[in-house]
Design brief:
The complex is a heterotrimer of chains A (354), B (618) and C (185). Chain B is of the alpha/beta class and 618 residues long. Chain B is built from 19 helices and 14 strands. Chain B is elongated. Chain C has 5 helices and 4 strands, in the order H-H-H-H-E-H-E-E-E. By secondary structure, chain C is mainly alpha-helical.
């Protein structure tokens, strides 16, 4: 746009570039990711590699069609991050084509067709996730119980085989692999809770199941803790702002607490809400995606609170076990409205009417 | 709006308010504030632009070839918004021509070039020693005559600011100097604290303000110390230390820091009863009043990693930047940038012949390593860091989209013109978008569009007025013709012989037409039988025409304007009707007309034609 | 039967009430808008240059209102086309090159030594921006000149030039410097 020879002030910059921001977000997922591998097996790693490769390839293809600089744009790390986040959300042993469809949809339709980085209305990873969830509900809710509870242990090669052929090296199918040591199967903690409630069990009885830990799902409480750790680091590094995570988490807490006051036997405990499912990943890594989030300080609080409320509502009354993806997408839709009504008062306009 | 008293009370409290946003870039001040202010060795030529302030310019008082004395006024200053410039040295005016200006565009502006002579004489100073007993106007006039304009940045004429029609309660001397690298105000406060405070007292006296606050950022402990010492025992003077944050030295931000008040958009601080002056200006006020010296020199910081001896110097206005760099041991790297002003709001020096002017506070030669240039612009990821950094609480990111889309309406909706161009947004932008440049471009475009709108409105009015005038003139002309035609008609009435003349003329015209037609149709073949019938018919037609002509001419209301077309139609009709019917009749009936007759007929026809034409055109 | 009557009655009453409300609102909150032609005319640059093929800006505004193309105004350029497109609710299109190209702003300048005082340019100027009288030199009032070019053609001695307007630095667009960059090293 401007002559390269000529630059206006300011001369110099803070030094943190978009590429670095994206890279730091990627690094911050490491603790959660390690926990995920520990508890849910090698599948996550394979999904990770698969998703990132698909993300980069589809971004490159679209960029070349749009005649944009490929190397520089791929280098900004945004496609990589989208692939990474989707890989973390997909069940570790989901078949390979699930990841391919999800990531390709996220990059091609949700991101690039809207104009590329900075122009997408929706969070690409979550939009991809929701498309998968609606299109392939069984595969997408087919989370393995955590490794220590499993009947059949899994190796890396097992995981590769399961993802690409549907059967492990020993010939077990995914549903067989889901079996507990005692030969039974169970859904994810959030799913199981709702199912069990329908079977007239009380909350405390349900929470005695093996799949629940002290603060959340048995494994997912550690995974969430990992993401919380990464998120706090991002906050400290100034990559994300506190508004959205704080608003989102506190809204979930408050609503869950109020609900459990009303009917303690039928409510998933407030703290468990925070450490089950995708709460922390959503709060620190997904809702804070700047492109699709609100940009005004007040708007960010509102945006976070809206996601928190929607997550709680969907978990409590909705048909889907977890609601982070839906909540984020619904809140994304409200962003222009939120931004419009939460503009800060400009200097010198106090008490002035527009 | 707060009452005056509470504003004063607010100031008197020891509280410092806050302003939103802001950034903390590396200060880099210790590079240049370790030594005393040096004198710059004199150079050969000084380039004094005639306009170094905001406002207008007046006549140039010198001619090429003139010898000037030091401190001699070079331009006049009769208009309100003019400030004169003075000769920094004694010498000869060698040129008055456009020279690269100290502006970001470097657009060549009219500059007086003075060649220094060996014999340095200055004109005698006219100080006002007893300023305390002088009135406001005298002092303001002296300030204007000595060429003072704001030395902090914008260069607003000082005499206008001190001559405010509004009552002023608070005078703020701005020694914040929040930009990285720059230390010119810092060292000036350290070394000339008493002069600055004296200047402040003079300003206080001129403004009749109740309190004078000197604001200094807390990263200048030495300056705070010396100013505090200088203020001791002076009533109404107060030193306020503000926390280091960029851009706390901005006029609006500093007022917010000191009073908690915001200057309403579109107003000036004087509306709140506040006047702010840079400490450098206060020093210049003291020089102008007590020593009677015009503004011909100022403290300039020369700093950056690419000069070996970073320092502050007293630079004469008009000294080319190259001299300053030379003095400080300039050691350029590849693609060296030199910046006039600070890194946040300064501009690139595109030509080292650019002169130092009244607002030049710093010459910065940074290394690319210490002050990396912004990289290639990437897509905005709406991260909102810019909004967090904006001291005016604008939404820089939204403005950027609108600026790219040239949506002027939206830009004004989002208060683009409240942007102070401090550069905090672009500094923090991870996508390295040159935000300030977008805003500046848009501001210029909007300003231009507004001016064009004014111009086009004016053109519209002028065009419409012209159309009206033309219409009026046309009507007036018509009326005149009508009047003269009537006069003629009346004259005709009186003079009956004239009627006959016209009738005769018409007849002649007809005859001539017929002759002409016959000539042109002579080659048309015709039978004898037809000839006889045609001849008879032609005769009848001729008779009718004659009768008609007579009738027409005898009509009471007949006017030349009416008659002429009729005559014309007759003259025209005739030949066409005769063309077919009596090709040879004329020749058989009438003997071939003599040459003389023919000519007469032709003349008559010409007259008739001319008349008809005139009637038509009217 | 009665129910139907009641229902009809209720509907009629509702219709009357809503009709009254709407009628009142249409009168009370009527938006006074300039006629389209005036609005269009306001957007045009008023150079009266005739490059669009009409004798002035207003006639062209009328033509646009009657469905003519919006891209025939070179002096207004891209910005004007965009504004008209916004007003008319159509897509902006590039300037029709048949009517000329967008150019820098210019004003007429009469080389006064050569002027013979024929007044032909005065008659041609649509905004009366040229002063002078028969047999004496003419000059252009720069502030009033729209740069329409119409005076250049009639001048019998070709003493009128169109010179680019010097823009003040406050109008400088911060896009590129106005002087070549000198190597500082």
């Amino acid at each position: 746009m401007f002559s390269s020879l000529f630059k206006s002030s300011p001369h110099g910059a803070m030094g943190m570039t978009t590429n670095q921001v994206m890279r730091m977000v990627c690094y911050a997922t490491i603790p959660g990711f390690l926990a995920q591998i520990y508890f849910f097996g090698w599948g996550s790693l394979i999904q990770l590699v698969l998703c990132i490769v698909v993300a980069l390839v589809s971004e490159a293809i679209i960029l070349s069609l749009r005649e944009k600089p490929i190397r520089r744009t791929l280098g900004d790390g945004s496609a990589l991050l989208t692939g990474l986040l989707l890989a973390l959300s997909i069940p570790p042993l989901a078949p390979w084509w699930i990841s391919v469809i999800g990531v390709a949809f996220a990059i091609i339709i949700v991101k690039q067709l809207y104009g590329g980085l900075g122009f997408n209305l929706f969070n690409p990873a979550m939009a991809g996730y929701v498309v998968l969830l609606i299109s392939f509900p069984v595969a997408m809710t087919n989370w393995q119980p955590i490794q220590p509870l499993l009947m059949h242990s899994m190796s890396l090669t097992d995981a590769v085989f399961v993802i690409f052929s549907g059967f492990s090296t020993e010939g077990y199918s995914t549903s067989q692999l889901k079996m507990f040591i005692d030969g039974t199967t169970m859904a994810t903690p959030l799913d199981q809770f709702n199912t069990s409630l329908a079977q007239q069990l009380t909350a405390s009885e349900i929470l005695d199941f093996d799949i629940y830990g002290e603060y959340g799902g048995m494994g997912s409480q550690w995974v969430n803790l990992g993401y919380l750790l990464g998120g706090l680091w991002l906050l400290r590094m100034g990559v994300i702002r506190w508004h959205i995570p704080v608003a989102m988490i506190s809204t979930i807490l408050v609503l869950a607490f109020l609900a459990s006051l009303a009917s303690p036997d039928k409510t998933y405990p407030a703290v468990h809400h925070l450490f089950t499912g995708a709460t922390m990943l959503g709060a620190f890594f997904i809702a804070t995606d700047p492109v699709s989030a609100s940009t005004t300080p007040k708007g960010r609080l509102l945006f976070g609170a809206l996601i928190g409320a929607l997550v709680f509502i969907i978990r409590q009354w909705g048909g889907y076990p977890d609601g982070v993806a839906f909540a984020v997408l619904l809140a994304n839709m409200c962003v222009p409205l939120i931004d419009h009504y939460t503009q800060p008062t400009v200097y010198g306009h106090k008490g002035m009417k527009k | 709006m707060q009452s005056e008293l509470s504003l004063l009370e607010q100031i008197k409290q020891d509280k410092i308010w806050e302003f939103p946003g802001g950034i903390h870039p590396p200060e880099q001040k210790s590079l240049s504030n370790q030594t005393a202010i040096n004198d710059l060795p004199s150079c050969q030529r000084y380039y004094v632009p005639i306009k170094q302030h905001i406002g207008s310019t007046d006549d140039i008082l010198v001619n090429v070839g003139d010898d000037v004395l030091g401190n001699q006024a070079l331009t006049d200053a009769n208009l309100a918004m003019t400030v004169p410039v003075h000769a920094p040295v004694a010498g000869k005016v060698v040129a008055i021509e456009p020279h690269v200006s100290a502006h970001a565009s470097a657009k060549p502006e009219l500059t007086i070039v003075i060649e220094r002579s060996d014999n340095q004489k200055t004109i005698s100073a006219q100080p006002i020693k007893k300023w305390a007993s002088e009135d406001r106007l005298t002092l303001a006039t002296q300030i204007k005559k000595m060429g003072l304009s704001g030395m902090g940045g914008a260069g607003f004429p000082t005499h206008i600011k001190v001559n405010s029609a509004k009552p002023i309660d608070v005078l703020i001397l701005n020694g914040v100097e929040c930009e990285p690298y720059i230390t010119s105000d810092d060292v000036l406060m350290r070394e000339f604290a008493h002069d600055i405070i004296t200047g402040g007292q003079i300003l206080q006296h001129v403004l009749q303000s109740k309190i004078c606050v000197i604001a200094i950022e807390d990263n200048k402990p030495e300056a705070i110390e010396s100013i505090k010492k200088a203020c001791e025992g002076i009533e109404g003077f107060k030193v306020k230390v503000v926390p280091t944050k960029y851009p706390s030295g901005g006029e609006k931000q500093l007022i917010q820091l000191l009073t908690g008040e915001q200057v309403p958009s579109g107003s000036i601080p004087a509306d709140l009863g506040i006047v702010m002056q840079n400490v450098g200006t206060a020093y210049a006020v003291k020089e102008a009043i007590i020593d009677g010296l015009p503004l011909t020199k100022r403290v300039v910081t020369i700093t950056g990693d690419r000069v070996s001896a970073s320092q502050n110097v007293w630079a004469l206005l008009g000294t080319p930047v190259s001299e300053l760099l030379l003095h400080a041991g300039f050691n350029p790297e590849k693609d060296q940038r030199v910046i006039m002003g600070g890194p946040m709001m300064g501009f690139a020096v595109l030509d080292a012949a650019m002169p130092v002017i009244k607002t030049t506070n710093c010459i910065l030669a940074p290394s690319a390593y210490k002050l990396p240039e912004q990289g290639v612009e990437q897509a905005c990821i709406r991260c909102g860091l810019c909004a967090d950094a904006c001291p005016a609480e604008l939404l820089p990111q939204q403005l950027q989209w609108f600026s790219k889309a040239k949506d002027h309406e939206k830009l004004e909706d989002y208060n683009l013109f409240d942007c102070i161009e401090c550069g905090a947004c672009a500094y923090v932008c991870p996508s390295q978008i040159p935000l300030v440049q977008y805003y500046r471009t848009s501001k210029a475009e909007i300003r231009e569009a507004q001016q064009e709108k004014i111009k086009s409105d004016k053109a519209k009015v002028r065009f419409e007025q012209r159309q009206e005038r033309l219409e009026r003139e046309k009507e007036a002309r018509l009326a005149k013709h009508k009047a003269s035609a009537e006069k003629r008609a009346q004259a005709l009435q009186k003079d009956t012989s004239a009627k006959d003349k016209i009738a005769a003329a018409l007849a002649r015209a007809k005859a001539k037409k017929a002759a002409k037609a016959e000539e042109s149709n002579a080659s048309v073949p015709a039978t004898v039988e037809e000839d006889a019938a045609a001849a008879r018919k032609a005769k009848v037609a001729e008779a009718i025409a004659r009768a008609k002509a007579k009738k027409a001419s005898s009509q009471e209301s007949s006017q030349s304007t009416d008659a002429a077309p009729e005559a014309e139609t007759l003259a025209k009709e005739k030949p066409t009707s005769e063309n077919k019917e009596q090709p040879e009749s004329q020749s058989s009936e009438q003997a071939t007309p003599s040459a003389d007759e023919l000519r007469k007929q032709k003349i008559a026809a010409a007259i008739a034609k001319a008349k008809a034409k005139k009637a038509k055109s009217d | 039967m009665q129910i139907i009557l009641y229902a009809l009655l209720a509907l009629v009453i509702l219709a009357v009430i809503f009709g009254a409300v709407l009628g009142y609102a249409s009168v009370r909150f009527k938006v006074e808008a300039d006629p389209l032609v005036d609005q269009l005319n306001d957007l045009l640059p008023q150079t009266q240059c005739g490059q669009c093929g009409y004798p002035g800006c207003k006639p062209y505004a009328e033509a646009i209102a009657n469905g003519d193309e919006i891209n025939k105004c070179p002096p207004g350029g891209e910005a004007t086309i965009k504004n008209i497109a916004d007003l008319m609710g159509v897509d902006a299109k590039p300037l029709d090159a048949a009517h000329g190209e967008e150019d820098v702003k210019k004003v007429a300048y009469i080389r006064e030594d050569e002027c013979i005082g024929c007044t032909k340019c005065i008659q041609a100027c649509p905004v009366d921006a040229i002063v002078g009288a028969s047999k004496v030199m003419h000059t252009v009032i720069v502030d009033e000149c729209t740069g329409c070019d119409l005076c250049v053609e009639p001048c019998p001695v070709d003493c009128i030039d169109m010179v680019p307007v010097q823009q003040p630095t406050s109008h400088w667009k911060w896009k590129e410097p106005l002087i070549p960059i000198k190597n500082l090293s």
